[in-house]
Amino acid sequence: MIFRKIKLMNSKVKKKNVGIFIFDSVEILDFAGPYEVFASTRLTKKSNAIIHKFSCPFNVFTFTEKKKIITCTGGLTVKSDFTLNNCPKLDLLIIPGGIGTRILLKNNNILNWLAANKDINIIASVCTGSLLLAKAGLLDNKKATSHWGALKLLKKLSPSTQILTNKKFVYDKYYTSAGVSAGINMSLHIIEKLLGKKIAQNTAKYIEYDY
């Protein structure tokens, strides 16, 4: 994959679409963590607490398969911005995890959609979102990780995948991360690759996350 760096200019920079796929029984921090990272990123080399004064280089949104209202792990109800039918063209795709991924492993509509969209510039999974990438064939002969409780299942779904443990995230054409909060680390790393270390550090400082 080739990272296309965003120039540090101004609000005229074309925003990149970051689509986060959500579904019933999705883990809250799996999608909310990356959402916060990308939505809090600003094109300034100086850290600033009043980020609304600066342009965000990302257009961050959620999308679902069909229905817009989903219930997350823990009972939180969320309304998505789009569905598969009207989702804008993606530059970055985030696939979170949660117990709901187990049902989606049998959903050919989603699995076929992932396989058909495997060439999106950046595809990243959080936690057990990697199970969906594996089932769709995207992790064949690649290195990957997932939540520690799902590593055996990941290997079962994709026997040719080299499973890496004790890693916050792994990159091998596609990103996979460990569980829950590890998605924040992965997202900050993606920010660093696209915009540079200083921007990633400023973003981490704003959300008060140790990066």
Short description:
The chain is of the alpha/beta class.
How confident overall, as mean pLDDT? 94
Low-confidence stretches: none
Name the helix and strand elements from N-terminus to C-terminus, one letter apiece: EHEEEEEHHEHEHEEEHH
CATH superfamily of the domain at 16-128 and 183-206: Class I glutamine amidotransferase (GATase) domain
Q: Could you give the distance between the termini? A: 24 Å
Question: Any idea of the CATH topology of the domain at 16-128 and 183-206?
Answer: Rossmann fold
- What's the CATH C level of the domain at 16-128 and 183-206? Alpha Beta
Structure notes:
The chain is an alpha/beta fold. It has a domain at 16-128 and 183-206: Rossmann fold. It has seven helices and eleven strands. The chain has helices spanning 28-40, 101-104, 108-116, 129-135, 151-157, 182-195, 197-206, and strands at 16-21, 58-64, 69-71, 77-79, 82-83, 92-95, 122-125, 143-144, 162-163, 169-172, 174-177. The strands form three sheets. A seven-stranded mixed sheet has the order 5-2-1-6-7-11-10, sandwiched between helices. Helix 1 (28-40) packs parallel to helix 6 and helix 6 runs antiparallel to helix 7. The model has no long low-confidence stretch (mean pLDDT 94).
